[in-house]
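Weekly structure sync, notes
Attendees: PL (lead), two postdocs, one rotation student
Agenda item 3: pending single-chain targets
PL asked that the sequence for the first pending target be pasted directly into the notes so everyone works from the same version. It is reproduced below exactly as submitted, 78 residues in total.
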Amino acid sequence: MLRALNTRVAFEVDGWDPQTRVGWSVVLKGIAEEVSSGIDPFSAALRERPVFPLAPGSRERWIAIYPAEISGRRFRLG
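Predicted structure, written out during the meeting:
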């Protein structure tokens, strides 16, 4: 991930609700910047947000994506 700092990146999040059979996908494109030790209000506020990673391991770096483009779609099966 460190090679992606200060470059254009994309981040995708998908979800699925089996009860309603509705799925969604959102793609964010922008510039990645490390905010681990920034003293500006934006960096400090990001680090205060609760984060609940699914993957195990320690998290010592915070990376923010400054969005240039956001797209998404929702779909229903059945």
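Discussion points:
- The first strand starts at residue 8 and ends at 17.
- The mean pLDDT is 90.
Action: rotation student to compare against the earlier draft before next sync.
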